[in-house]
Design goal:
The structure holds 2 protein chains of 2 kinds.
Chain A (H helix, E strand, L loop, with lengths): L1 E3 L4 H10 L4 E4 L5 H6 L7 E4 L10 E4 L2 E4 L5 H6 L1 H6 L1 H7 L5 H4 L4 H6 L8 H6 L3 E6 L2 E6 H4 E3 L2 E2 L6 E8 L6 E7 L10 E7 L5 E6 L6 E6 L7 H11 L13 H22 L12
Parallel strand pairs in A: 1-3, 2-3
Antiparallel strand pairs in A: 4-5, 5-10, 6-7, 6-10, 8-9, 11-12, 12-13, 13-14
Chain B lengths: L16 E7 L2 E7 L5 H8 L18 E4 L2 E4 L12 E3 L1 H4 L9 H8 L9 H14 L5 H7 L10 H16 L2
Parallel strand pairs in B: 1-5
Antiparallel strand pairs in B: 1-2, 3-4, 3-5
Classes of the chains: A alpha+beta, B alpha+beta.
């Protein structure tokens, strides 16, 4: 394994292109270095992009949304006041990644770019209609995040390419969001399943689903309902979870995962809906 | 320290990476293979064995150090990434104190938070970062802030008490 710290994006993508199938990008290292230790990744070249001077800034806010660069960490996301105001579900998801020391290093973009269907921050980002920019020696292209995920650990980002920015449009006025995750134990663990919900001002609902299919999935939009009606809520949850294809694995059996997805979807929708009129609950968690 | 040749990580293909950084306030220069973690470089190249190797995959926190003001799992950071960084290990915490221990380390002893002691350097570094970023943490905030540091003696209550004690000491200082 060789280590390379390029100073420009052009140098970085040229290095990736020189060994497209065996080079890996290093940002936080919290996934890559675990994989290297377990020999599940055996890169011949590690390209550390933290010294790239023309990289997209970690977090920049404008009227229409927020753009994240590859070096934005989970800790940066959690601490940013505008991210907290606009994307509470993303803040909740980022706050559940690993531990404090992991969140100080782990990259938001890399969490999605790794293509794990259990990535914590991908469901809220998909529900927020995020998009990514992918760069290579032949130029740039942009994709909706939900179309970026192809299969477990497979994305539109081909060998030799890298994700250079993540754009999340500003949520519509009066909407809010919430994230729910289930793990086998509190603390450092991967999701058994997770749901990020967005509820618009008029009550329309959208969800991002984590570990409930081969990729992060989008559910909805589902038309507004009377949230006090148990029957209507169950029907809405049915519709929101329609794309889910849960399997049984090391973390949960199929039946249990299916049942827990309903619980999480219900909680996320209700919490996002309540949060629309109660900004004090921006970071409060019901569970 | 291994004598270094003029080889640079900025060249694709360098077999050894020369890393210059600050460790506990002193300049350090090591030449390491690219796959060497910061944890191994601290322990082997620099002889700073206070930083512990345990799970080596970011689960247990025994290797926690502070890099540029923020805690990291040094098992999940390459030594090569430390170029130009300011690193604080447990050896540096109480270095300037008369007894060789800082107030936080003293509090761990006073609260009886140290049993076998293996996790304590990581616990202390995580607690130091927690108190720097949140000088008056609630018990919940302490538990959350320390949740990446496992203690197999399960001495968590007293570890939390030690952090609370330090916060009180620092508030009245």
């Amino acid at each position: 394994m060789r280590y390379y710290r390029p100073a420009t994006t052009a140098q970085a993508v040229a290095a990736l292109a020189s060994q497209p199938h065996t080079s890996r990008i290093l940002v936080g290292g919290t996934d890559l270095l675990v994989a290297v230790r377990h020999r599940s990744a055996q890169p011949t070249l590690v390209v550390d992009i933290k010294g790239v001077r023309d990289l997209t800034a970690p977090i920049s806010v404008d009227e229409q949304g927020i753009t994240f660069g590859p070096t934005a960490t989970m800790g940066d996301v959690i601490a940013h006041p505008t991210v907290r105001e606009w994307f509470p579900a993303l803040v909740e998801a980022a706050g559940l990644v690993g531990s404090v020391a992991i969140r100080n290093r782990a990259s938001l973009i890399a969490n999605s770019a790794n293509g794990s269907p259990a990535a914590d921050t991908s469901p809220p980002l998909v529900s927020f209609n995020a998009s990514v920019t992918i760069t290579s020696v032949s130029g740039e292209r942009t994709s909706l995040l939900r179309e970026f995920f192809l299969a477990p650990r497979r994305t539109l980002c081909e060998p030799g390419e890298m994700v250079t920015s993540l754009r999340v449009p500003r949520p519509s006025p009066g909407s809010s969001s919430a994230f729910e995750r289930m793990t086998r134990r509190r603390g450092v663990d991967l999701a058994t399943c997770s749901v990020g919900a967005v509820v618009d001002a008029d009550g329309a609902m959208t969800v991002g689903l984590g570990a409930l299919g081969p990729t992060t999935l989008l559910g909805g939009p589902v038309a507004p309902i009377d949230l006090t009606s148990q029957e209507q809520l169950e029907r809405a949850v049915d519709a929101l979870l329609a794309p889910a294809t849960p399997i049984g694995d090391i973390r949960a059996g199929k039946a249990y995962r299916t049942a827990m997805a309903r619980v999480l979807a219900r909680r996320a929708v209700l919490r996002a809906a309540a949060r629309r009129t109660d900004p004090d609950r921006l970071t409060g968690r019901s569970s | 320290m291994i004598p270094t040749e003029d080889q640079s990580a900025d060249e694709v293909g360098a077999d050894l990476v020369v890393v210059t950084c600050s460790v506990n306030g002193e300049s350090a220069r090591v030449s390491v293979p690219p796959h060497r973690t910061l944890m191994d470089a601290l322990r082997n190249e620099l002889g700073l064995t206070g930083t512990k190797t345990c799970c080596a995959e970011g689960e247990c926190g025994a290797c926690t150090v502070i890099v540029d003001g923020a805690t990291v799992n040094s098992c999940l950071m390459l030594a090569a990434e430390a170029e130009g960084c300011d690193i604080l290990t447990v050896e540096g915490l109480g270095a300037g104190e008369p007894g060789g221990l800082c107030d936080l380390q003293e509090s761990f002893l006073e609260a009886g938070a140290v049993q076998c002691g293996f996790c304590i350097p990581g616990q202390v570094m995580a607690a130091e970062y927690l108190l720097r970023t949140n000088p008056d943490p609630s018990v919940d905030e302490i538990r959350e802030g320390m949740s990446g540091n496992l203690c197999r003696c399960a001495g968590y209550q007293r570890i939390v008490a030690a952090v609370e004690l330090t916060a009180r000491k620092r508030a009245t200082r």
